[in-house]
Amino acid sequence: MTMRNGEHRDALKAAMRRMPGAVCLVTTVDPSEGAPAGLAASAVIPISMDPPSMLISINSQASAHGPIARSGRFCINLLATDQTDLVGPFADSARRDERFSAEDWARHEGVPYLPNACAAIFCEVQQEVPFGTHTLFIGEVAHIVGRDGAAAPLGWIEGGFATIEPLALARA
């Protein structure tokens, strides 16, 4: 049976809801205004350890897309389970004015980051690859800030928050 594009899209969305992912806030600063920008993202992956680099996939219609492209840098804030309250403003464009209002934020070379995130990974854009509705931004890691202690990373599955914990299995 052949599926049409819309059927593929719906089937892929349903399948991807079953794939757990880390919850991240991707942030940057718009060089034209100096204003912070950001969005909630789960399409974040490490792509190389030599050079250390990360990939983020950003919808071209997202408010942070332009600022990331213009600034050439971004920070991936890997959230902890005690930071769920920060996600709402970054996931809902109607709450955009609340995004950086919490006292949780600091800046590194102008880019906002969360010192209490599991990790804040600062990247310099090395390549942009437009594909469909999104742009893949490949960034080389320039700086990392890690949270002191053993913060549990915040996950996402089936449209809701989840915890991510290692299984108590023997490791190979």
Automatic annotation (TrEMBL):
GO molecular function: oxidoreductase activity
Residue ranges of every copy of the Flavin reductase like domain listed in the record: 16-163
Protein name per Swiss-Prot or TrEMBL: Flavin reductase family protein
The EC number(s) this enzyme carries: 1.-.-.-
PANTHER family (alphabetical): FLAVIN REDUCTASE, FMN REDUCTASE (NADH) RUTF
EC top class named in words: oxidoreductase
Superkingdom of the organism of origin: Bacteria
SMART domains associated with the record: Flavin_Reduct (SM00903)
Keyword terms: Oxidoreductase
